């Protein structure tokens, strides 16, 4: 047969996408493909897309153009959220050979066997209502921390969001399935697992729920650290917070989407909580774990957001005992309820508000870090070497940079901050 075919991957978007790309990579390697870096020449390029912002759509197009210039004879496969939402639009991009929707991405190996360069672009997609199965995914050997997908899809209907249309109904692994994956990752030497999902707190069906999953994982041996990725404030129960506070393996680190500090805007966004509940969650975390890091997602420039609404958001965040912000500039998404709302916030105002909150985030992070200066905390150092330096994170997610030592890779080291 000759030499192995090579495949290169590029991931846009969230931790969930990284876990899925890693799983797709292992599937193709098991089928005889050899993985190579995206900047190298490859026989097949797979782009796993996001569609949270316009920028991800544009980036996908730019990547395809880059491949066309570098390797016009190579196969280009697009999957992920953008592929599910706009398969025909993607199929029209010159150089794209196949578009795999949500139900077909994990059948990539079979589809590649039937694909020939030069054929009409193949679209393998279905209505999102038909997507029902759960495919377990995790990243391994890509980073020191592993992203483990335990839940997919979302039943919420936030007015700005296309994710339910891209990923379908909420569905989950079984606790027993997650535990098996965790055991496998422990055997492979993984020290830290980040639990991910589209709406992570909605994990479970019947008697199972996220709290019970966390309890089960807290009993597992072999994994030193678990982190909870983004979890909705209305699903972050007191019991989950108390479990983390009393756990030796769940890290004191939460990422809780807020989106707006104005109750009026939260209503327009169709969020399932108000700022008072959010403040309660933060207060309980900080009461039980004063050292805990809390990250916050915020959207600026949502339709109808007045100067007063934005000021409420700024003041609310300024007063909250949080650590850092992920600030998103609102961008119009097709087929969302937000398109019917107004008045539209001018783009330059959106960017000004984004900058204001990013400055606030910087100050919050600096203040948080300074509280721990001189303390000794446990740091898990990562594999990547950058100019003779290595990076790692404390239990409460403070980034540490140190001179590279190979023996420290994937080790938890006591570190004086």
Q: Kindly give the count of domains.
A: 4
CATH class of the largest domain: Alpha Beta
Question: Helical proportion?
Answer: 25-40%
How many DSSP E strands? 19
Structural class: alpha/beta
**How do the strands of the widest beta sheet line up side by side?**
2-1-3-4-5-6
The 3D shape can be described as: globular
Cα Rg: 22 Å
On the 0 to 100 scale, the average pLDDT is 94
Query: Spans with pLDDT under 50 lasting ≥5 residues?
Result: none
CATH topology of the largest domain: Rossmann fold
Pfam family, one: UPF0004
Domain MTTase N-terminal: 5-117
Keywords: 4Fe-4S, Cytoplasm, Iron, Iron-sulfur, Metal-binding, S-adenosyl-L-methionine, Transferase, tRNA processing
GO molecular function: 4 iron, 4 sulfur cluster binding; metal ion binding; tRNA-2-methylthio-N(6)-dimethylallyladenosine(37) synthase activity
């Amino acid at each position: 047969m000759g030499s192995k075919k090579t495949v290169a991957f590029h991931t846009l978007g969230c931790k969930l996408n990284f876990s899925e790309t890693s799983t797709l990579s292992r599937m193709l390697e098991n089928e005889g493909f050899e993985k190579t870096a995206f900047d190298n020449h490859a026989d097949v390029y797979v782009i796993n897309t996001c569609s949270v912002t316009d920028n991800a759509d544009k980036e996908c197009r730019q990547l395809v153009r880059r491949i066309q210039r570098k390797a016009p004879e190579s196969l280009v496969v697009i999957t992920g959220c953008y592929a599910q939402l706009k398969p025909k639009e993607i199929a029209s991009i010159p150089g794209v050979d196949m578009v795999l929707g949500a139900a077909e991405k994990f059948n990539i190996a079979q589809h590649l066997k039937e694909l020939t360069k030069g054929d009409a672009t193949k679209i393998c997609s279905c209505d999102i209502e038909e997507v029902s199965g759960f495919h377990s995914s995790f990243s391994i050997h890509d980073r020191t921390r592993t992203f483990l997908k335990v839940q997919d899809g979302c039943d919420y209907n936030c007015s700005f969001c296309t994710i339910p249309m891209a990923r379908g109904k909420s569905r989950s692994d079984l606790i027993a399935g997650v535990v098996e994956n965790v055991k496998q990752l422990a055997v492979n030497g993984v020290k830290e697992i980040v639990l991910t999902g589209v709406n992570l707190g909605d994990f479970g069906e019947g008697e199972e729920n996220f709290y019970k999953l966390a309890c089960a994982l807290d009993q597992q041996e072999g994994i030193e650290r678990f982190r909870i990725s983004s979890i909705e404030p209305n699903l972050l129960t007191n019991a989950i917070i108390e479990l983390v506070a009393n756990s030796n393996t769940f890290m004191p680190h939460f990422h809780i989407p807020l989106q707006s500090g104005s109750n009026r805007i939260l209503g327009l966004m169709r969020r399932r909580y108000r700022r008072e509940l959010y403040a309660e969650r933060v207060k309980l975390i900080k009461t039980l774990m004063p050292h805990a890091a809390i990250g916050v997602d915020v959207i600026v420039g949502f339709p109808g957001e007045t100067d007063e609404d934005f000021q409420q958001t700024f003041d609310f965040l300024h007063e909250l005992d949080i650590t850092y912000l992920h600030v998103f500039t609102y961008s119009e998404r097709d087929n969302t309820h937000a398109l019917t709302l107004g008045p539209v916030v001018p783009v330059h105002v959106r960017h000004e508000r984004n900058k204001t909150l990013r400055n606030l985030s910087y100050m919050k992070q600096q203040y948080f870090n300074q509280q721990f200066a001189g303390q000794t905390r446990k740091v898990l150092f990562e594999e990547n070497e950058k100019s003779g330096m290595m990076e790692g994170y404390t239990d409460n997610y403070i980034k540490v940079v140190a001179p590279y030592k190979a023996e420290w890779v994937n080790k938890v080291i006591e570190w004086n901050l």
